[in-house]
Backbone:
């Protein structure tokens, strides 16, 4: 397997960093290739606008998706974006490693998605969801939370974690075609002891080494929807 | 009313910009004060790390929330963050104006939240949700989507928009105490004609001028949860 880990944490000694480093060791030891984009380490710029492109279709009015399609045709994405796109197309498995900040991706990682998942290049023209460009590849979120596990379900104060992550799992990863395997979560990361951390690393190892055999989350397929993109037979 | 609009769109001629400009005119004409943070115009830096602070509690290991609490005690947030916090505390009503990118906030706005909504300053020590620091103030999302309305509900291909926005409405705005009024959404923004755009502006005007009388979305209150932060009497 070729595994691409997009890593977003500002502290190199963090447990997020430990998870990424451990994933690299475990996966390489098992004969896989691993590439890491350490967004803080790279000083990745997460602001999406004209800086994404080295040429412009329309100077007077910036339409991001139009410019993305133009850049796809003309191979004119900026070098930082092009490098990330190459890793994305190279990989068989994509992993986002991040702390859950404000119930979503850290800004630096959200901006990575905004800039790298460009129209024309990663979706468009009927290429989305189960017909997406990255169909056949797998993706997984690996994250840490501040709050403990009891807070993140239907009766928990923060709401159901599956629902919280749905816009990322379904709306980002599955949108471009990835088969999304269930997320790996370290709850209450700052409050646990070393023994618990070691147990989490061991659990992560098992998840990583079985990712090929892990069934993706099942979502409705394009054929289930009518021309208004509504389910043909709700219930 | 003192209204603070955080605006996140790279094109000054966009419909998002029209909505923000119109809101300013409408609200000021009605005797309110309006402050706008145009994040692209300001070249706001959305990367959250040590740059948020002018002094440090711990040099050897960066713990963001610990540093935030230290900066709260020592008034040592960086000037760009401090300026945004002042607007946040000044306002009675907070509005986020943005295009829905990848089913979430654009990276520049997500990073604004990551940096400005600091522990100690905007939450912590039992100050959250209905006991939050901004209790009594109101907040509203105003957004545009690329897809049309039929795609964004329980039977739509993209999922229910209320569920997609829950991590923002509940997890960001309500978390720090705001009463969150229902979002204003322009669906299929790039596909509608001028007449429809004018109708949306008129609808937005009515929403803005009635915001004081609009009841916030009802969420469970802290008193409904036990010491594990689970609902005391689920069903």
Residues:
């Amino acid at each position: 397997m070729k595994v691409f880990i997009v890593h977003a944490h500002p502290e190199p000694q963090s447990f997020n960093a430990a998870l990424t480093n451990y994933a690299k060791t475990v996966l390489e030891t098992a004969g896989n290739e691993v590439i890491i984009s350490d967004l803080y380490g790279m000083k990745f710029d997460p602001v999406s606008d004209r800086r994404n492109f080295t040429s412009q279709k329309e100077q007077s009015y910036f339409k991001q998706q139009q410019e993305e399609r133009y850049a796809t045709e003309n191979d004119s994405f900026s070098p930082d974006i092009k490098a990330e796109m190459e890793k994305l197309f190279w990989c068989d498995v994509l992993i986002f490693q991040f702390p859950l900040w404000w119930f979503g991706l850290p800004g630096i990682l959200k901006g990575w998605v905004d800039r790298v998942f460009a129209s024309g290049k990663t979706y468009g023209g009927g290429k989305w969801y189960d017909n997406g460009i990255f169909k056949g590849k797998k993706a997984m979120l690996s994250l840490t939370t501040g709050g403990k596990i009891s807070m993140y379900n239907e009766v928990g104060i923060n709401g159901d974690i599956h629902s919280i992550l749905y816009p990322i799992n379904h709306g980002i990863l599955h949108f471009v075609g990835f088969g999304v395997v269930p997320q790996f979560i370290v709850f209450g990361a700052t409050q646990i002891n070393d023994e618990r951390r070691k147990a989490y690393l061991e659990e992560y190892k098992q998840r990583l080494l079985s990712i090929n055999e892990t069934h993706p989350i099942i979502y409705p397929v394009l054929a289930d929807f009518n021309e208004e993109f509504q389910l043909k037979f709700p219930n």
Observations:
- Chain B has a mean pLDDT of 97.
- The first helix of chain B runs from residue 15 to 29.
